[in-house]
Amino acid sequence: MILELEDVSVTQREKVVLTNISLSIREGDFVYLIGKTGSGKSSFMKTLYGDLPLLEGDGKIVGFELKKLRERQIPHLRRKLGIVFQDFKLLNDRTVRKNLTFTLKAVGWRDKVEIRERIDEVLESVNMLRSLDKYPHQLSGGEQQRIAIARALLNEPELILADEPTGNLDPHTSVEIMELLQQINNSGRTILMSTHDYPLISKFPNKTLKLDGKTIYEVVQKYR
Ligand SMILES: Nc1ncnc2c1ncn2[C@@H]1O[C@H](COP(=O)(O)OP(=O)(O)OP(=O)(O)O)[C@@H](O)[C@H]1O
Questions:
Q1: Domain contains 223
Q2: Does residue 79 sit within a domain?
Q3: Per-residue pLDDT at 162 exceeds 60
Q4: Which atom of ligand 1 is nearest the CA belonging to 44?
Q5: Locate the ABC transporter domain: which residues (predicted)?
Q6: Which of 9, 10, 11, 15 to mutate to test the pocket of ligand 1 (most atoms within 8 A of CB)?
Q7: Distance CA 153, CA 184 (A)
Q8: Pocket of ligand 1 (CB under 6 A)
Q9: Which of 79, 108, 132, 147 is the most exposed place for a label (fewest CB within 10 A)?
């Protein structure tokens, strides 16, 4: 199991945002997390990558026990996750190449040739090799998200957490990004993606979990 939660509560400061969350995600799954604004999607994701502490229930993610997670283990946990955000979070003062180099160096890569080869490989996989020496502001939103996805792939993550990855994109670009994520999943990678883009979900049907009334349940999709 890549992710397993049992009776977990998600808390922001003293406020309980979600309770009684139990779910499991297997290797190779593509799972959507849906719910209205404020339903707790981001807080849920933050609990999974160690940005919010897990105070109640049991949670295991890519081999880490969330309840026992120590501050110093968080970087190790994040190395096994690929995290993609709505607002891309690229470093705007440096080129695509330097953005990706920064991530690899942070996890100990030193060999220049290996770094170059790995960057070429991930950029190729998102079809952005041509933008190696561009700055983020020279790219469209969809292109920036492709770079952010390439960055998430650098460490060969066991799980990709994508928090509203199409939230800042127009419908056409959203479909393109979704095609890319679906293709990454088809090659065997596990993805948990939060979204409130219902048309997108019906175009790309996958297992769907809904946050509502502080808890979670699986939604059975209607296929048309
Ligand atoms: N830093 C914070 N401190 C205290 N409460 C917070 C904090 N961030 C979020 N909350 C509260 O937690 C609840 C869930 O917010 P969250 O951002 O997780 O929802 P969301 O479903 O991701 O919404 P959105 O789609 O707007 O991002 C909200 O009631 C919000 O007010």
A1: no
A2: yes
A3: yes
A4: 18
A5: 3-223
A6: 15
A7: 9
A8: 12-13, 15, 17, 35, 37-43
A9: 108
Cβ contact 100:150 at 8 Å: yes
Selection from 26, 40, 84 nearest residue 215 by Cα: 40
pTM: 0.95
Query: Side by side, which strands form the sheet with 159-163?
Result: 81-84, 159-163, 190-195, 30-34, 207-212, 215-219
What would the mean pLDDT of 26-51 be, rounded to a whole number?
Answer: 96
Question: Which domain range does residue 172 map to?
Answer: 3-218
User: Which residue type occupies 161?
Assistant: L
**Dist CA 108 CA 93 (whole Å):** 22
- The answer to whether residue 155 is domain-embedded is yes
Mean model confidence pLDDT for the chain: 96
The mean pLDDT of 103-122, rounded to a whole number, is 97
